Amino acid sequence: MRILSVSSGKGGVGKTNLVANLALALEKKGYHTLIFDADLGLANIDVLLGLAPERDIRHVLSGECTLKDILIKTPYGFEVIPASSGVVELTRLDPSEKMALKDQFEEVSRGVDFFIFDLGAGISDNVLFFNLVAQERIVITTPEPTAMADAYALIKLLFLRHQVKRVYLLVNMVKDEREGKAVYQQIAQVVERFLGPVGLTYLGALRSDPCVAKAVRRQEPFLEVYPEASVSQDLSRICEKLLRLKPKSEGGLEALWSQSFRATS
Ligand SMILES: Nc1ncnc2c1ncn2[C@@H]1O[C@H](COP(=O)(O)OP(=O)(O)OP(=O)(O)O)[C@@H](O)[C@H]1O
Ligand SMILES: [Mg+2]
After folding, report:
1. Where are the domains of the chain?
2. What pLDDT is stored for residue 15 in this prediction?
3. Burial group, residue 73, by CB count within 10 angstroms (0-12, 13-18, 19+)
4. CATH class of domain segment(s) 2-264
5. In principle, which of 14, 114, 153, 225 could form an S-S bond with 172, CB 3.0–4.6 Å?
6. Is 0.90 surpassed by the pTM of this model?
7. Contact 158/119 with Cβ under 8 angstroms?
């Protein structure tokens, strides 16, 4: 199983759309994918996909049900663990709650090829925690200077505080592929100059495309409803690139989970 996180410094840069569509692309290639909506502030992958979860992580934390009970199988094959608004950060749970949740995560991720965390914007403890549990981290930015500065701030914090050295950069809402590469090069230069050993891999760019907003309004992944759109072509390329990248194995979910709690609490 490959465990991936998707985060950004700035909000609204396209994390949730990437996660949903990447899950679909992976599923189409035969890789079973599970999404955890770990944006505990404003959960919205369920809205994006038109799902109506009756229960969410809150009910798991209160002991009313298990993670397995709240798992939603989408019409696209991949599965989603819904979060909820206003729930406490997972990093604030007591040790026995953390262990119970870890066991449940292990149970639901059996048979899964890709486990993807859709994180909130910013640098909360929760964002840092799931970035550490993940073996591979995708940071998203757009070409806007504010989004680029915030992406750099996130990469810097992950490195300085938690020695995270491998990050994939994805540039969303670009005019063309050239703009994506230029944004990557700009950030990579600053990273190299000030953070030295951090390896920043360019995962690719997604063009700005009105089909994304149209698909969001239909509550369906753009790759499903507009497979020929430019953004869908870009997404497929990104999926292929991801499949070519071989992660360095850093232990399974169990080891990562415990280490990450030690590091963030
Ligand atoms: N490639 C794109 N082209 C055009 N619009 C896009 C593209 N990607 C995302 N968007 C638009 O940006 C908006 C925000 O996307 P999304 O909800 O995926 O961002 P997010 O990073 O998950 O936000 P948040 O930080 O609130 O979780 C969406 O409403 C979508 O319409
Ligand atoms: Mg989101």
Report:
1. 2-264
2. 95
3. exposed
4. alpha beta
5. 14
6. yes
7. no
